[in-house]
Amino acid sequence: MVKPEKLIENGIRLDGRKPDEIRPIKIKVGVLNRADGSCYFEFGGNKVIAAVYGPREVHPRHQQKSTSAVVRYRYNMASFSVEERKRPGPDRRSIEVSKVSREALEPVIFQEYFPRSAIDIFVEVLQADAGTRTAGINAASIALADAGIPMKSLVSACAVGKVDDTLVLDLNKDEDNYGQADMPIAMTPDGKITLLQMDGHLTRDEFREGLEMAKKGCLEIAQLQRTALMEKYSSLMEGEVNE
Ligand code: ADP
To answer: E strands of 136-205, at which residues?
Structure first.
């Protein structure tokens, strides 16, 4: 798409959202039978699947830690997930996204409960529309809980940015391409930030205001994550009662 003349008109974005609105979210928990925990997560035009395996044996053995579990996170974009075919396999960007996403989740996992073991998280991006790392973290957080991994809390993530000199929550692809700043953030429901990256420029005041917007977005997402998990497990429990 060529650069639109305006990304915001009369306070409304090109996709009809207000500046502080996140895109629609759909969550399905436990979609993969062979994983210990899994989640399908739609965040606007992003579609991702997270699969969690573990705690399990560490291969290769030299990666094991004697006092805690190792957490491994692999973010991968399917070649059909973007407009132009993406060359399959890891690249600099996917290695970076994997690293920061792992670091966004590690603080909430009780790794010390599982020495000499591995917790493996795989995130596959099926469709990308800006915000895949945040969608991946949201999905992975649910998949970890679904796998029964002990956690201090969930982690929720969304980006805040600036387009046409206006702060906006959860940028879509056009806003990401033609905007002035993009700041993905992940946090726990009590506001502890576990990921903060910045592409572009924000003033100090914009940064502060943006952080507040991101907090609001993350709280909304946390509520949806909790509801999705509760739905799966309350329906399982109902099944048990009815049998
Ligand atoms: P995020 O997806 O977390 O926002 P980026 O800001 O790096 O991460 O990417 C923004 C968007 O750019 C992606 O969601 C995707 O739509 C697109 N994109 C990223 N990598 C590629 C690629 N190799 N080829 C085509 N589009 C890509």
So the answer is: 156-163, 166-169, 181-187, 193-196, 199-200
0.85 exceeded by the pTM?
A: yes
Is the pLDDT confidence value at 108 over 80? yes
16-37 residues labelled b (16+ CB within 10 A) or e (exposed): ebebebbbebebbbbebeebbb
pLDDT digit string (tens) for 124-165?
999 999 999 999 999 999 999 999 999 999 999 999 999 999
| CATH number of domain containing 111 | 3.30.230.70
When pLDDT is averaged across residues 204-221 and rounded to a whole number, the result is 98
- Give 188 Cα–ligand 1 centroid separation in angstroms: 24
Q: 133 in ligand 1 pocket by Cβ < 6 Å? A: yes
- Residue 215: give the domain boundaries: 15-242
Q: Are the CB atoms for 125 and 80 separated by under 8 Å?
A: no
**Pocket residue to mutate for ligand 1, from 176, 178, 195, 196, most atoms within 8 A of Cβ:** 176
At residue 214, does pLDDT exceed 90?
yes
236 located within any domain? yes
Asked whether residue 71 is assigned to any structural domain, the reply reads yes
> For ligand 1, atom 13, which residue shows the shortest CA distance?
130
- Which residue, by CA, sits nearest to atom 17 of ligand 1? 130
194 within ligand 1 shell (Cβ under 6 A): no
Query: Binning pLDDT at 50, 70 and 90, where does residue 243 land?
Result: low
Q: Are 163 and 62 in contact (CB under 8 A)?
A: no
